[in-house]
Amino acid sequence: MLLDNELDYISGAPHHSRETEKFNMFLHTWNLHDCWRTRNANKKDFTWSKDKPFIARRLDYIFCSGDLISDVADTDIVHFPSTDHRAVVTQFVEHPFPRGPSRWQFNASLLKSKDFVKHMNIFIPNFLEDPQNVDIDCRTKWELLKAGIRLECMYFSRCTFNKKGNE
């Protein structure tokens, strides 16, 4: 599929304008940008060709969101052996990515705490009997219960750590 009947074909018949308009409307709707065309606004080049008769078109693309287009460092159309297509290669700028919190894991040493066990023996039945949770399907209730247990564990651990730090 061609994006532009003026720039994306070297020879052969152009695609029907209605098809290219729909393709461009799709890209616009989803805020997708052609990385190569953004950097080569008026350049005629092709990614596919055949010899007899000679036909050449730009049919291969790398699309990215409008949020990422400014992070394109380089893009090019290069020879790719053993095929009638050329490769579109795009490199993006790498930004340092700050490491966030790691995956939560249950601290089994909490089970040695009588206060924690007592707290969870109250929390779990209260959660299951809460009127807000009565009409929820079992799978969703299970996921909500696990999330609640996780939050309670984190809160209990933080409070225990703060108590020990203040002693």
TrEMBL record:
InterPro entries: Endo/exonu/phosph_ase_sf. Keywords: Endonuclease, Hydrolase, Nuclease. One of its GO terms (molecular function) is endonuclease activity. The keyword Hydrolase applies. This is Endonuclease domain of the non-LTR retrotransposon LINE-1.
